[in-house]
Every structure is written in structure tokens, then in C-alpha cells.
Design a protein that fits this description.
The protein is mainly alpha-helical. 72% of the residues lie in helices and 0% in strands.
Amino acid sequence: MLNLLLILLLSYLAGSLPTSIIVARITRGIDIRHYGSGNAGGTNAFRVLGWKAGLFVSLVDIGKGVFATLVISQIRIGSLPFESQSAVMVLAGLGAILGHTFTIFAGFKGGKGVACGAGMLLGLFPIAFLICLLVFALVLFTTGTVSLSSISAAVSLPIVLLLFDRFTAMQVDGVLLGVSIVIPLFIIFTHRTNIRRLLKGEENSFEKLKIFRKKHSKSSTSEPD
């Protein structure tokens, strides 16, 4: 049991690394929580710090999930309360997500768990990660709204895993399948303020994507049949 607690603690601490806060301090000398949406996640880093810093923050946050799932889960200083390594990897990933969302280094207010959750999925089931990433990209291109894209990708996760489990030779671990139902609920919870803004039509979106879609739409409609 002590081994499992150590894995969960280290995973939580790895997830707690406040990437966007650190990057904002180093590059701009600001507290990113006082700018943009006030969230300490990758999306706000894109808005406040620019795409290069935003991409770096997102990749590091994904890496935290991968590291906890694939590396920290392998720590052995004693016995585990169960034999399923897949369960240990899932729990390590969940620990990182909780650390990312409720970071001990920033008053328990961090990101919304999407990037770190994506890292966990990348470590556990890379093909499902790619499909969910595609869902995210399609919704983002269509709407320009990151929150809706994140929720859509999270909701698609259990569907994707169930389809793989039922219709392919790739069996999905039961623990992962069960957790895949909980993760969308968690993502919806962390995006509850975004959902309220979406319902009011007040949610932030990336203007460059809006402009690109409008130009693309105009060029498509102006072409002769």
C-alpha cells in the first residue's frame, strides 16, 4: 500500500508543476492568473503569451501525464495492493491530472486537466489519443472555441474505447474503460463556467480561426460550379 501511495504522491507532484505560471514569470514577468481568462492552463498561455509559449506549455503539460503514467507508475519499493499494472498506470495518470488541476504550488488552482489527461491517454492508448485529438481539432476549426473542443474530445473518449474493444482485436483494459467514463464528467466539471458562457453565447474564441473560416467560406462560395 505504501508503494501505491508513493506513486500517487509523486504523480500528483509531477502534475502540480505550474507550467504556464513559470513560463509567464520567465518570459513576461507576470502572473498569468491575472490576465486573459485567469486560468493557469495552456489555452490561456496561447492567448496571453503567444503561440510559441502556449505550445510549449501544452506539450509540457501533456508530458506530465505521460511521465506519471509510464514512468512513475513503475516505481517499486515494495508490494502493491493489486497485481494489475494497467490499474496502477491509470491511477498514476489520474494523480497527475488532479495535480495539474489542483496544484499545491499555486493555491490548488491550476489548469483544467485536458492536456494532462491527454498525456495519460497517450501513454495508455496512443491510437485513442490520436482520434480524440482529431475530434478536438475538427471542433476547434469549426467553432474556434477551445472549451467546446476539449469537452467534445473528452466525451468521445469512452465511445472510441468502447468501439475499439467491441469491433477490433485491440482489447481495452476494464479499468481504463471505466475511468474513460469518469474523465468526461471531470472535464465538464472543470469547464462549468465555460459551459455557462457557451449557453449565453459569450465564450471566448480564437479570432484568427474565425477569420480563416470566413475567408475559406467566401472563397468556396465564389468558385463557379
